[in-house]
Amino acid sequence: MTAYIIKRLLTAIPVIIGLSVIVFLIMAMIPGDPALAILGSYATPENVERINRDLGLDRPLPEQYLIWITNLLQGDFGRSYILNRPVIDEVLERLGATMILAGTALVLCSIFGILAGVVSAVRQFGWTDRVVTFFVLIGISMPAFWLGLIFILLFAVQWRILPASGMYAVYGGGDLSDLIRHLILPAATLAIVATGVVARLTRAAMLEVLRQDFVRTARAKGLDERAVVYRHALRAALVSIIPVIGVQAGFVLGGSVYIETVFQWPGLGAMLVKAVSTRDLLLVQGGVLVAAALYVLVNLAADVAQAMLDPRLKS
Amino acid sequence: MSVAIAPEIRSTRLTSWQLLMTNRLAAAGLFVLVAILLLAALAPWLPLPNPNITDQPNRLHPPFSPGHLLGTDHLGRDILSRLLWGTRVSILVGLSATAIAAFFGSLIGLVAGYTGGRVDDVMMRLIDMLMAFPYILLALAIVAVLGPGLLNALYAIALVNIPFFARNIRGVTLSIRHREFVDAARLSGKGHTAVLFTEVLPNVLPVIVITMSTTVGWMILETAGLSFLGLGAQPPQADLGSMLGQGRAQLFTAPHVSMIPGLMIFALVMSINLLGDGVRDVLDPRLRSGALNRPMPVTSIEREREQPAERPGAALLEVDGLETGFRSGRSLTLAVKGVSFRLDRGECLGLIGESGSGKSVTALSLLGLVASPPGVIRNGAVYLGGRDVLAQSEQQIIAQRGARVAYVFQDPLTTLHPLYRVADQIAEAITAHNALGASEAHARAVALMETVGIRNARERASAYPHELSGGQRQRIGIAMALANDPDVIVADEPTTALDVTVQARILDLLRTLRRERGLALLLITHDFGVVAQVCDRVAVMKDGEIVEQGDTRAVLDAPRHDYTRRLIACVPELGQGRRFLDNVRPLFAPQRQETEA
């Protein structure tokens, strides 16, 4: 198992290098003088000169990339001129909040998505299946930002039972129960939208597996239906569901951009939106890179989990 | 033979359009979508106020105000008018983004799939890299560089969706690039570009269209999202997303300003998805044929004729007039047509026939193991110890599986669960019928593995099926069948997937077990050689019927039916050499003429 994990970690390295190249190239697409674009209204002649020197913007592209990646590896993601602080500090400060939100949503959408998908497959064409299928479609078609606003109207304005924004109460909050109260609405919004895809693919995977020969063997042994469905079919279907959850991590991270904006959650997503509208390019670059690296790691974890479930993958 | 259940044959063949309309959700989706499209298209000619004229004194009117059906926004603009104009923009942007992504993605996919080799490798690596991003973030980075604006948002969303198309199209292209018609076009002297666009593209086009229909809803959602964040449409231009984003500031005082455009986005995307799902269901042949249906615990039993529930003094197993078929639409195709046979205690009966003769379906019908849907047992009875299995409840039938009648299946690689250790799978068969502790069941499982001749059973116990050889796997299958000391073992082509020497050993094992345990064995095979080695009696099946039945020796010495003669002739003998073909040929000659005629 350890050997497998190390092997997978090694294959993640070229992916992360590739990610950095793509982000670098996108930033190189900037129309006009990049130094001016990065600095925006802070473009004094000294600043322009400094950033040209720091980032090597006057050199050819490959050389620029090398300078850039060397800086990154030393933890130097540049400086946000609008916030007037190093990018890495701002990103790391907000990373935790995003991980709490996205992580919770991911766990919720996995649990409910798999449950709904299994029930839907087991009761195929029955009423439960139709209801689940319909709600799945609603989830897939729902603009997450709109659902968030509806929840705020209902739970925070109408019934006044949950806070509408922020991560902690401004006065007197700060403990775990305060965090959970603030987490419920944004995490639920994000999870509802993501659950649809998981449920849909779980249903398909279950229906596929239920027709396999080894399920017939389980029946021929005289196992009751519960054991056939859960011990035999679901276990095999999980192998193909786990990677889907890895992909959903990307969806949830992306969706957090909207949700954090709607609920004023102090995470990377809200930071990115602000950074894009103020064209704080180095901050955008840092945030996107860190979020993408996080996504790669989650997928790595999904691969490892898959290999733990399926002994055939390890050899 | 097909038995039409419905009186009218014509009604079984619905056109795609009728199928789509019978799916009420898809029809509703189509209706809503057409309504929205019409309203949006007709916006310039409808009697609506100018969407951009502000009217400060009349701001934030609620819906159903005089002159403003849906009220006004924070600048006093008419929401209905803005909604329809905004819908136009959103649909247009979503469609354009889809078209751009489809064009470039398909181009990449076509070239990569058609060229193959290193070009394909490099292109797909790049696509994989792009897919390693959470793609909304990638779109944000692109907008950050290009600057906020509707066109830039459109480009960003189109760009991040290119990999999705490239992947799908490449897969299909790869699968047809060496098909005969492509090779023929190349040999006729067409250039690669010409072949790609005149031969490959038309065959890939349906996939492109389906992929577009499944992504267009997404694209509308995503571009609306960017506008909602203030990164897409800039004032005074408005799409649904930016209306929602601007209305958010009045969420507490005038919720309708943001709720109405949100509802429109939802209705638009939902109707597209409903319709898309319906179209996909209609086009997917697997859904039509029911190949994706979930099999029930027990084959559905819909007997047309009554059978006595008990038959006193019957043999151990007596099958009487069994008819099993497969339902497709409204017609039922019978695979087993009135099969009857008996099996005594300790006896071995060979059920022989070519593939498709209905022998496996017969065997699976005994305890309702035929996948259903589409399988249906339409008639007959299965007397086990004098009581009809098919008349019993689902629970009773399940309780007899493995306990009184156990199965050994053909391909042990696919019939064993790939993710459980072999001893656990045997132990599970034991605990299904006995209240036994885990360690005791495990010990018995290891003992059974020894019984079926697995060396180092204790070590092998923790192996997974893929770690064993084919012969060992089949021994595990047999051990599992023996777990509860059944009266009957049904072995369905137990040696077909194995090579010849292993085959001989497995047959030996079955013979020994039968002698030692007094088992009754129903052996299903297409090989008369196997029957001659193991079986006391033989029943020959053809096209779902038993055409000849009798003692093995007698049938072998004096086959009465033509088909039996042919099956026997198919067993080659050592040293027979070229004469084998000379012997077989005349037996098949008349049939060939029949089929040619």
From TrEMBL, chain A:
Chain segments annotated as transmembrane: 9-30, 99-122, 134-159, 179-201, 236-259, 281-302
Keywords: Cell membrane, Membrane, Transmembrane, Transmembrane helix, Transport
Domain of life the protein comes from: Bacteria
Start and end residues of each ABC transmembrane type-1 domain: 95-306
Compartment(s) where it occurs, according to its Swiss-Prot or TrEMBL record: Cell membrane
Family according to the record: Belongs to the binding-protein-dependent transport system permease family.
Identification of the protein by name: Peptide ABC transporter permease
Organism encoding this protein: Devosia nitrariae
From TrEMBL, chain B:
Origin superkingdom: Bacteria
Transmembrane segments: 25-46, 91-114, 126-147
Keywords: ATP-binding, Cell membrane, Membrane, Nucleotide-binding, Transmembrane, Transmembrane helix, Transport
Subcellular location: Cell inner membrane; Cell membrane
SMART domains documented for this protein: AAA
Residues annotated as domain ABC transporter: 317-568
Residue ranges constituting the ABC transmembrane type-1 domain according to the UniProt record: 87-276
SUPFAM superfamilies linked to this entry: MetI-like (SSF161098), P-loop containing nucleoside triphosphate hydrolases (SSF52540)
Membrane-topology annotation of the record: Peripheral membrane protein; Multi-pass membrane protein
Keyword DNA-binding: no
Keyword Ribosomal protein: no
Family assignment from sequence similarity: Belongs to the ABC transporter superfamily.
The protein, known as: Peptide ABC transporter permease
Organism listed in the record: Devosia nitrariae
